[in-house]
Design brief:
alpha/beta; about 300 residues; two-stranded antiparallel sheet; D-Maltodextrin-Binding Protein, domain 2
Length: about 300
């Protein structure tokens, strides 16, 4: 397009009170601004500015042109932003800390194998989240808080929970469950009480207890033989598969689930690919049928199986 540079300088000058102010914004001289305005006025065969004391003001033709340049440069900015998004290879994802360390990170290599060059940047947090303004595109959460209606919620998997212990520790206590130490976390202080409300047949209120600052330490304590922790299945699935933990009473539905939170908009290409991968990977993270004690009325059956 002819005189595009002149149109841009006019656009900046139209939003300024003087050519000097426009020159400062554009990092050029006052004379360069004046010259390009004269070029444009000659091209359009009409004046665009007039003197108003030490400042300049737009003529009627200048006001009309400013409306057109505003639309044009806004459209150009939007187009450039969209082009940049299609080339974006970085995705900011917030995920609950224990889920990040014990499930998501060990599986990210599977995503990278199919999306070389992608950059998934993880941050850890639980509970309410602010997306968009702070750079975060997605958040993976357990649905134990109120979610703002501005976010789209995608269910990922129902949560199954149950006591988990190391095999060696279980051999020591299985014949005397009064000696079972209950491991608690400050982030999920009612996990044991909630599990016992889902099942019948055992009272553990007098058992020795120990509390850790975070759920991650609670699970690690169970792996290290310090006692029994209530494990959310995705967080203990790998350790169960490796034999580091066992679930002697199986798992019951907790009534919660894991969610993906995102803004109500069309996802970018990388974002859509990650969402699709996450939905598929986490939806399969369920306890095997033999460990699902759905609507368990008594623990005796589960206990005898162990």
């Amino acid at each position: 397009m002819r005189h595009l540079k002149a149109f841009h300088i006019f656009h900046v000058a139209a939003a300024s009170s003087s050519y000097s102010e426009a020159a400062e914004k554009l990092c050029i001289t006052h004379g360069a601004v004046s010259k390009q305005i004269k070029v444009l006025e000659a091209y359009l065969s009409q004046p665009l500015f007039y003197r108003q004391g030490r400042n300049v003001a737009l003529t009627p033709a200048g006001e009309q042109l400013r409306g057109y340049t505003t639309q044009a440069f806004q459209a150009l900015t939007t187009g450039v932003d969209k082009l940049a998004q299609t080339k974006k290879t970085c995705l900011e994802v917030s995920c609950e800390p224990t889920l990040t360390m014990r499930w998501l990170m060990p599986r990210l290599s599977d995503f990278y194998d199919n999306h070389p060059g992608a950059d998934i940047r993880l941050s850890t947090a639980g509970g309410p989240v602010t997306l968009g303004d702070n750079g975060l595109s997605l958040a993976i959460r357990r649905d134990d808080f109120s979610v703002s209606p501005e976010y789209q919620q995608t269910p990922l998997v129902d949560e199954w929970v149950g006591p988990v212990v190391s095999p060696d520790y279980w051999r020591q206590v299985k014949n005397d469950l009064n000696s079972l130490k209950l491991l608690h976390s400050q982030t999920r202080p009612h996990a044991w009480a909630h599990w016992q409300s889902c099942v019948d047949g055992m009272s553990l209120s007098k058992n020795t207890q120990q509390t850790f600052a975070h759920f991650y330490f609670c699970i690690q304590g169970a792996i290290d033989g310090l006692g029994a922790a209530i494990g959310s299945y995705p967080l203990v699935a790998d350790d169960l598969a490796r034999g580091h933990l066992i679930a002697p009473f199986g798992f019951v539905l907790s009534g919660h689930r894991y969610l993906l939170l995102q803004l109500h908009r069309v996802p970018e290409a990388l974002e859509q690919a990650f969402i699709h991968w996450l939905e598929h990977a986490l939806s399969d993270c369920l306890p095997p049928q033999r460990l699902r004690k759905k609507n368990l009325a008594t623990l005796s059956e589960a206990y005898l199986e162990s």
